Amino acid sequence: MNADNDRPPLFKSWKQWYVFVIAFLVLLIILFNFFTKYFS
Amino acid sequence: MNLLDWIVLILTLAGIIAYGLYKSRTTHNLDGYFLSNRSMSWGLILLSIMGTQASAITFLSAPGQAYTDGMRFVQYYFGLPIAAIVVCIVFVPIFSKLKVYTAYEYLETRFDVKTRTLTSFLFLLQRGLSTGISVFAPSLILSSLLGWNLYWTNLFMGGLLIIYTVSGGAKAVAYTQQLQLIIIFVGMFLAAYLVVNMLPKGIGFFEALHISGKLGKLNVITTGIKNGKFNWSDQYNLLSGIIGGLFLSLSYFGADQSQVGRYLTGSSIKESRLGLLMNGIVKVPMQFLILLVGALVFTFYQFNNAPIFFNKSQISKVESSSLRDSFYVAQAQYYVITKEKQKTVAQFAQALNDDNKARVNLKASQLQFLQLQSDSLRGKVKKWVKSAGGDGNDTNYIFLRFVVDYLPAGLVGLLIAIIFLASWGSIAASLNSLSSCTMVDFHRRFSKKPITSEKEYQWSKWYTLAWGAFCIIVAMFTYNIGNSLIEAVNVLGSLFYGVILGVFLVAFFFKNIKNGFIVFLAALITEALVLTIFALIKLNYFQLGFLWLNPIGAFGVILFSLIFNWMPNNKRKQIVLKGGAN
Do B96 and A3 touch (CB under 8 A)? Predict the structure, then answer.
């Protein structure tokens, strides 16, 4: 593996990528909760 | 299955084998055979990670799980995105820097050869057995449903993929997984479309969701709290999904060579990280959609006659037992309730279309009452099947039974092919990882004579073949020790994963612990503890969801390592001397 080529695409840093992944998970949980309540 | 189904099935499988062989050309050394010369892009890594994780059971069991228990199973994956982040931050840079072939190589650098060998051995034990069960489980389902010979099905399920896995190694595995996943998603999408299309006139996608939702099948988020108390034996809820799922995923992606071997093929740290993170993003929605297919199949069966038990071959066991008369009475009652449900569900749909809220609520509660009655009858039949010596769990048969009974010719063959492809994707990656650990952690490590790269490559191919044969033998043997072993794949992982992860966590986060024997001993004690807890659960001394065994294993290794490390120097020396640590 080439360790030098480690700059992430789309975001400025990997930290921002990690925040994005967590935010996406939180959003999914909120949407799933809404989905559960709406159809029950 | 008719002729068209057979043609579709044979062409799809032959096409995958041919494609795997076409992509087999690789350099004749371990880098080429196990790591595709570390040249893969994130897209291929993503598909390879997904193809490795998604076995046939994922596509068979998940829709059935939604049918019986609702969609709450998706919470099992909530820990995965968090685990992907931890692996990206901690595991990937270290594995990349050391240019390891297997995750366990790092443990020798950090501790000693004993710790490396123990964790690699635990991995081989767990992965070898669970891959054998992964061959057996879909073979059993297909042979029961289609009347195929189980031994031949085992042989095709576990044998054909060996052709391209042996010849092409990691590269052939990754490229075939890519094609396999495309076919799988197309097939699943077509099945979902047809379920909705086959619903009665006036019942569309949203009405179908309202029906399954009112009957408790769209319970995506559950808290696990019952009567104000958290239920620790509840397998799938928000807390167990995030915490238990985090530890399971962390073990799987950080310490299981079948996954580590996928992202080590990346051409850079960036590609490996992106592959892992994208999997963290797409896995939960993907699993949600697969479960949604099951919820839609449930709605479909509200308008059509659902069998009281989906595995026909097991019914004959009850019919030939003393419970036969009780079974026929229950079946008759079930069909009376089914007819009543069909009438009520049509009235419910009409009330929905009329936007008559009072009538919607009335019909929903009538439906829920009828559902309770039919669930109770199904529960009785499951018990009777079990007491007649059969497998009382028909969850894995629900989706495929629907496919065989209702989908058009050609698509049945495609869906059967999907079962094979999903199996092959995960089994091929497992064989590749089993071979890499055998070659790198044992053969190369303990061999006294140095051998050439070409010889290592040849040995690795033989090891892949040998592990393939081993898994088929396990699959054949599994038939003789019982039918209810499908869940065993997940349970087996939880018995060993936590301990393996614990060793890695000590290595990464407890830099003051340097003595390998301390960690080795802590791992052995914790493994014994986990196995004891599991035995006590099985003997009904207490109840605990199997996901919790992962954090117990991981924290156990950390705790015992810390205790041994904090012991006064003279006591610690005694332990070390007795163990002969280096």
Answer: yes
* Of B372 and B572, the one with more pLDDT: B372
Token match 């909120």: residue? Answer: A30
Q: Cβ A38–B221 below 8 Å, yes or no? A: no
**Rounded-to-integer distance, Cα B554 and Cα B539, Å:** 23
Rounded distance between C-alpha atoms, residue B352 and residue B354, angstroms: 5
* Chain Cα centroid distance, residue B200: 34
Mutate to test the interface with A, among B281, B298, B368 (most CBs of A within 10 A): B281
> What tokens does B409 get?
């010719």
CA–CA dist B379, B375 (Å, integer):
6
Please tell me the pTM assigned to this model: 0.85
| Closest-CA residue of chain B to A6 | B270
Structure tokens at B484: 């209810």
Q: For residue A8, what are its two tokens?
A: 């992430």
Residue type, B115: T
pLDDT at B21 over 60: yes
**Residue B477, Cα to own-chain centre: how many angstroms?**
20
Q: Tell me how far apart the alpha carbons of residues B306 and B300 are, in angstroms, rounded to a whole number.
A: 9
Is residue B17 within 8 angstroms of chain A, CB to CB? no
Report the run of H or E that residue B302 belongs to, with start and end.
helix B269-303
Is B270–A22 a contact, with Cβ atoms under 8 angstroms apart?
Answer: no
- Given a cut of 60, whether residue B191 has pLDDT beyond it is yes
Hey, what amino acid is at B74?
V
**Residue type at position B383:** K
HSE-CB at B259 with a 13 A cutoff on CA atoms is 24
Q: Is B98 on the interface with A (CB under 8 A)?
A: no
Residue A16 contacts B, CB cutoff 8 Å = no
CB–CB contacts below 8 A, A to B: 87
Among the partner residues B84, B218, B267, nearest to A35 by beta-carbon distance:
B218
Is A19 in CB contact (< 8 Å) with chain B?
Answer: no
DSSP letter (8 states) at residue B545: -
Per-residue b or e along B202-235, where b marks 16 or more CB atoms closer than 10 Å to that residue's CB: ebeeebbbbbbbbbbbbbbbbebeeeeeebeebb
**CA closest to B207 among chain A residues:** A39
B111-147 pLDDT, tens per residue? Answer: 889 989 999 998 999 899 888 888 888 888 788 778 8
Q: What are the helix (H) ranges across B304-406?
A: 312-319, 324-354, 357-387, 395-406
Burial class of residue B33 (count of CB atoms within 10 Å of its CB; 0-12, 13-18, 19+)? buried
Does the structure show a pLDDT above 80 at B57?
A: no
**Which positions in chain A touch B214 (Cβ < 8 Å)?**
39-40
Measured CA to CA in angstroms, residue B403 lies from B5, B417, B422, B511 at distances of: 12, 12, 16, 54
